[in-house]
Amino acid sequence: MAALATARAERLLVTVGNPNVGKTTLINAVSGSRFEVGNWPGTTVDRLSAHCKLSGRSVEIVDLPGSYSLAATTPEEKIARDELLALKPDLVVDVVDAGNLERNLYLTLELAEMGLPVVVALNLVDEARAKGLTIDADLLARELGLAVVPLVASRGEGIGELCEQALRDNPAACPLVAYQPCIEAAVEELGALLEGAPERRWLALAALSGETVRLPLPVAERSESLRQKLEAEGVDPFLEIAGQRYRTAHELSQRVLDRQQAPPQLTEKIDRWLLHPWLGLPLFLAGMLLVFRFTFLFSDPWIEFVGAVQGVLAGWVAGSALPPVVQSFLADGLIGGVGTVMAFAPVLFFLYLAMSFAESSGFLSRAAFIADRVMHWAGLPGRGFIPLMLGFGCNVPAIYATRTMEDFNDRLRVALAIPFTACSARLAVFVLFAAVFFPAQATAVVFGLYLLGLAAGLTTAAILGKLAPTGHSSGAMELPAYRLPTLGLTLRQAWMRTFAFIKGAGGSITITVLVIWLLLNVGGGKPENSLYAQLSQLLVPVFTPLGVTDWRLVGALIPGFIAKEVVIGTLGVSYLGSEPVAALGLMDGLQQLGQSFLTACWAFLNAIPAMFGLPQLAPPAPEAPDGLAGALGTSIAPAGAMAYLVFLLLYTPCVATVVAIRQEFGRRWASFSVFYQLLVAYVLGLLAYLVWPS
User: Fold this and answer.
1) Which of 35, 432, 436, 549 has the least C-beta neighbours within 10 A?
2) 527-546 in b/e burial notation, b at 16+ Cβ within 10 A?
3) Domains of the chain: which residue ranges?
4) CATH number for region 11-167
5) Does CATH place domain 181-259 in 3.30.470?
6) What is the three-class DSSP state of 91?
């Protein structure tokens, strides 16, 4: 049983493997860590680690990016190679997909040439059996000269045996590939110059293949001389070395594999429809619409409950003996502002829950394939769709995820398109406005905003592609098998993502709400006479053509540049700050909380049949807009509300996103992104106001 470790680790383990073989799931099973799990190459671009205790010994496990080889032809492979050379781990856990043994063994052969202690974790053996493949693990272990542990990491099968193996002192792996004499002679000569380096055989082979590796100058010069000599003799070292590794991997797999005829797999059956040239895109959009329907139906009851908690807390503060200014700050500032944002945590949780299921099951990885034609229209490879999809969660990691793309101009264009995608921070505002102004079409309106943001981003990429030449980066991607995610892992992912959002937003929300509260209370007693109102009213003429004439709506856009999640908090303070809160006793408040909780539970149960269009268990209670929703409903017309949503969707991203663009592409492009998005947001917001019915 793994437990979190606090002391310095006694052993260092490193997991390597091809993309989609279940490395991160394996670490979760071993250590209980809370890693994100993706189902496409390039998800774990950064080095991830976990500390745990195994049989009383402290262990650090490092999860390296998914890599097909150590040739460093992609950023993932370069990170994996450099970390292996630098870390000198006590053990390398080579996670191998049992259903794709031959392809995976290529990396295993390279690890053996590095002279590292290696254990092969033969994962996904259940999927291999379903394909009619049976692997003789004992024979494979004898052929490789390495320990081989069969696994089904998602169900915990074989984890105990792997943990036992991880604590043993495994010897360094022996090279398994024999090359033709001229290659071996060159490797032996270079290895003699690298005496003392355990990975000298792999370094010599890499140098002969023309890979960029760090070598002492005399060794580098000699390797180049030997490489040129071999080419002059008609031997291409790169092709010979890679070819022999592939042949060895093929021969090994043939000896240990027993193939039987198997019926068509579920993945093949589903992909016939989902990857259909004409049906694929509509089915994908329908799936994403289902995600949003699930999000709204199951989050609404808990939004109401959190709102009730907010009201009770404010009532308790109002009934306390605190000074009036402190009561105002707590009830109107922190509870009215931060509490309003926290009320939308259920929306984020259920969205992340649905997205985690779609991601871990393999559905989202099909998005890049399905969207390839759309991406091609924008002059981008299909792989560029993955950072765009990540942008729906948060724009900042999506910007950094563009590193997995090979061509700089492709990276730049995707990075400038990402801020148009509706990140989760904007979802709270969308939900609020859609519920108030478009209750009958709330799901369609929010879904339409997401599509509009994606269309604006792709159009931006297409325009920039016409202005600047672009290279031809590879769009090749792997489509993993469909897998049913475990409930515990999916719930944990959703909770961790929601918690990370709330934790990350907490500081900026608190500071922003404090500033807004101070500005609202400076200048004359009433919010409309405050300094905040005066500053906001200066910008009202700019937004009047969009139908936005309320200074409170305009003012909320200003701190929204710091972080979009503070918009709701700012609206809550500016609209509700002046309304007196009724004092509430302790028992009365507890009674209200109990009633609200039972109501939320019943509404949650009603959402289950409603999800499938079935009659609800009980008719929904009539809704009466109150609080912030009621105040908004009287401050702006529906056409203006739609223009406001479009502007909020498309205008300048948060400061963190601008900083990420500046770090990756420079100050000039970051400044361009800010002003360009302001222009696009204003123009499309004005268009939305003109065409939307009043």
Assistant:
1) 549
2) bbebebbbebeeeeeebeeb
3) 11-167, 181-259, 280-471+484-615+636-691
4) 3.40.50.300
5) no
6) strand
